[in-house]
Automatic annotation (TrEMBL):
Top-level lineage group: Eukaryota
Source organism of this protein record: Coniophora puteana (strain RWD-64-598)
Residues in WD repeats: 8-40, 51-92, 102-136, 185-226, 228-263
Presence of the UniProt keyword S-adenosyl-L-methionine in the record: no
Lineage: Eukaryota, Fungi, Dikarya, Basidiomycota, Agaricomycotina
Classification via SMART domains: WD40 (SM00320)
Protein name as catalogued: WD40 repeat-like protein
Keyword Iron: no
Entry keywords, A to Z: Repeat, WD repeat
One Pfam family matching this protein: WD40
Length: 263
């Protein structure tokens, strides 16, 4: 039996995004009220004052791997990096930030890079310490989701059409796969809304507005096995269990599903 443990009070409007800290002790939430709040995961008590500095509503949040920093992206307002302990702004807005609406942010597994994707179709990589832009590529549509491979050498992105894209990051820029590997994920019949690498980096899972989940070989870009069918509305989120043996998915106006990735 499951017990409701987290019902944050303090925001004046709907919560748009949230993120767990790597150690599981904190939860950060961002809302339409343009504020970020940090909560103790066990007691559900708010930690310190709200983080204020954005002029648009908060769309994306991500903790650094060491849990000491939090990156946020907002509507028409760019990126901010926060000190989790002091709640002070460390950086932002970033120079050369051309985003008009940030939809997704993520730290690389080693904490050296920040990736951001926006409604403007831009996928950017930033140095996580100097906050300088180190790479940028233009998509043909809004970037809806991002996922680094576990070793940080590749990043997958989805955009507001039926394909996902795979890039190398190890050369210090963004390059499509080469040497015969596919850099596109073709198969969905509607927008890819969310995606995630498996913990071992061998698979990428995508969830789409076509209500279907597909799993891909991350090396070849080819679909692995049959599509996962069971939801009746568009897929909003997919996530792997730590051992990669299970996949959980959530859909709009639909129930959660848990899938066995081995069968």
């Amino acid at each position: 039996m499951y017990t409701l443990r987290f019902r944050p009070f303090g925001h004046l409007f709907s919560i748009v995004t949230l993120a767990y800290s790597p150690n599981g002790q904190l939860i950060a939430t961002g809302t339409v009220d343009k504020k970020i709040r940090i909560w103790e995961a066990l007691t559900v008590g708010q930690v310190g004052d709200a983080l204020e500095g954005h002029a648009g509503y908060i769309q994306a949040l991500a903790f650094s791997p060491d849990g000491r920093r939090l990156v946020s992206g907002a509507l028409d307002d760019g990126l901010r990096v926060w000190d989790v302990d002091t709640h002070e702004i460390i950086a932002g807005p970033f120079e050369d930030d051309a985003h008009t609406w940030i939809r997704s942010v993520m730290y690389s597994p080693d904490g050296e890079l920040i990736a951001s994707g926006g409604n403007d179709g831009l996928l950017c990589l930033w140095n996580a310490y100097t906050h300088e832009r180190v790479a940028m590529i233009q998509h043909s549509g809004p970037v809806t989701s991002l996922s680094f491979s576990p070793n940080g050498e590749r990043i997958a992105s989805s955009k507001l059409n039926v394909t996902g894209s795979l890039y190398r990051t190890s050369e210090g820029d963004l390059r499509h796969f080469a040497h015969g590997s596919s850099s596109r994920l073709f198969g969905h019949f509607s927008t890819i809304v969310t995606l995630a690498y498996s913990p071992d980096g061998s698979l990428i899972t995508t969830g789409s507005a076509d209500s279907v989940i597909r799993i891909w070989d991350s090396r070849t870009g080819h679909q692995s096995g049959d599509a996962l069918i069971g939801h009746t509305s568009w897929i909003q989120v997919v996530a792997y269990s730590p051992d990669g043996g299970r996949l959980v998915s959530g859909a709009h106006n639909d129930r959660l599903r848990v899938w066995d990735t081995k069968t």
